[in-house]
Amino acid sequence: MRTFQFFVIYTVLLFLATIPAFTQDSAGSSQESEFYVVQIPIERIYAHNKGYIIEYRKTPMIDRQLYLPIDWFIYSKETKEPLKGEIILLGSGKVWPHLSIYYKDGAIDHIRVYVRKESWHQTWGYTAPSSSLDAKFDNLSELKIDLY
User: Residue 122 gets which letter from DSSP?
Assistant: First the structure.
């Protein structure tokens, strides 16, 4: 009986200790982000001399490709514009590569590409230089993605 009472008291104290973690401060300490994020699993990412080609699945039967120029990932000191894209290397583990698209005021603000750092991973592919692919990277000023 004494063990049961100890267990009940311990459970109640543990519950009371976790309540502050789930309640919000009335002064508004938690702020809402200005970004809306959409995450898309990457089927395969191809490295190209002009950028990256990301293959993603729109539906179970339809694959799409997205072309991301290398200029989007390089910070320019002359223009001082923020980066449009960022590559984040994932370590080994169970996390699958994905693309995060950050919307601000209804328009795409920037993207983050989370890829495996191991170039031998099955999601990495490489393309041979070709003029037909080079043309797809030219004059891309904004990201247009077909999600639906």
Answer: T
Give me the domain span that covers residue 72: 36-137
Total domains in the chain come to: 1
Residue 12 falls within a domain, yes or no? Answer: no
CA distances to 20, 69, 120, 139, 143 from 84, rounded to whole Å, are: 38, 10, 27, 14, 9
In the predicted structure, residue 26 carries a pLDDT above the cut 80: no
pLDDT tens profile 90-121 = 887 778 889 998 998 888 888 899 998 888 88
SS3 64: strand
In a domain, 20, yes or no: no
